[in-house]
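Example 3.2
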Amino acid sequence: MTAESEYHSNFAEARKIAAGGLDRPSADAVGQHHLFDRLDWFESLHDAVFLNTKPLIAHARLGDANLWLMLMTEGHTALSMAYWYSFAWRPVWTGNPDDATKLALATHLLSGLRRRVSTVALSPVPVEDNSASILQKAMRQAGWIVKSEATSHNHWLETASRAFADWWAERPGALRSTVKRKGSKGLVALEIHSNFDDKLWDEFEAVYRESWKPPESHPDFLRHWARREGQAGTLRLAIARIEGTAVAAQFWSVDDGVAYIHKLSHISGRDALSPGTLLTHALFAKAFDEDKVTRIDFGTGDDGYKRDWMEHSAPLMTITAWDPLQPTAWPAMVKTYASRLAARVRSR
């Protein structure tokens, strides 16, 4: 049996062909269990962040197995359709293919991609689920010259059917002491909302603006996405107040057994009572004991504080590939390998 491939430039075509396979799981379709693998995520992200970039949705099928690569083109380069909001970018599968079929599909699709672009740049690709290794192997088999490097990190934990109290007892002593001391004062009021409300979101944005974090690049997209999560019943919008004023805020979603920590912030100078830490503690308790999640995902970045809350970590890769037969790929390819050679010479 030979794999077949096709390439689409709009989401409507892909949605029709996927027939529910790229949607949120439902009674009528298996769908995608991970938020960042779903077509509506990619479409919303593209429309908000990459509207001036043409989608390139690559699809290969072999029997009942399907592979989708959600890409976009910029000149002669195919880029992963991902942004700071994306916890991961990876091949999206339907039909439950085994590893050999995955490799065959990826090699076939990436071979055809050489007729469309001369460079491919993919990030952030996880190693935990073998996405990075499958893509690298398939690229090399398809004739690409491949470079791969760790450029970010993912932290997460598996709840493993534990109660929150059992997990909390294993956290660092300093963290547990902070929560006990600051929480016992009773000066921080905590709220966790599952329904979207514009006024609450206004408070979330106000806290973020006054925090230590840089300005939000696409606030309208975040508001739109939070509203969608509220409609789906998966939103967890949390606010910490001191004397009625919002001083810390977090945006989570809980979807198909996974709690995603999208955004968290607190107002600079208002952290004497550790409102952000108390809010995180409350959200973890809810995720463990009420939402009964199997995984809590802290997204991208290797911030030190994440280690206090998480138990596992793995690198996220940037994979760059060049077609050695296309002149448009040569300058970047030569520059990259020249830099690598120079670094080796300096290290001797």
